[in-house]
Amino acid sequence: MNKNIKKVLVLGSGALKIGEAGEFDYSGSQALKALKEEDVETVLINPNIATVQTSEGIADQIYFLPVTPY
User: Fold this and answer.
1) Looking at CB atoms within 10 Å, which of 5, 42, 47, 60 has the fewest?
2) C-alpha to C-alpha distance for 17 and 48, rounded to whole angstroms
3) Per the structure, how many domains does the chain have?
4) Is 48 within a domain?
5) Of 62, 57, 51, nearest to 24 (Cα)?
6) Are 42 and 61 within 8 A, CB to CB?
7) pLDDT recorded at residue 16
8) What pLDDT, in 10s, does the model give residues 13-62?
9) What pLDDT score was predicted for residue 15?
10) Residue 56 vs residues 5, 59, 62, 68: alpha-carbon distances, Å
């Protein structure tokens, strides 16, 4: 990983249908954990408060904001 990268913005999995959320939440959580291991500060934007990604200690900063194409 490029050592010049100090902070990364991660877009969370958001609201999904029942049965879908687990895969997206897991992959995002693993990405956040990997970045933490590399001492990269993470900022998570996720409109869904009911995910593992939004648990305390997973991301350095968490914002619960809607993610829209506009």
Assistant:
1) 5
2) 12
3) 1
4) yes
5) 51
6) yes
7) 64
8) 766 666 665 667 788 899 999 999 999 999 999 888 878 888 889 999 99
9) 64
10) 23, 7, 9, 25
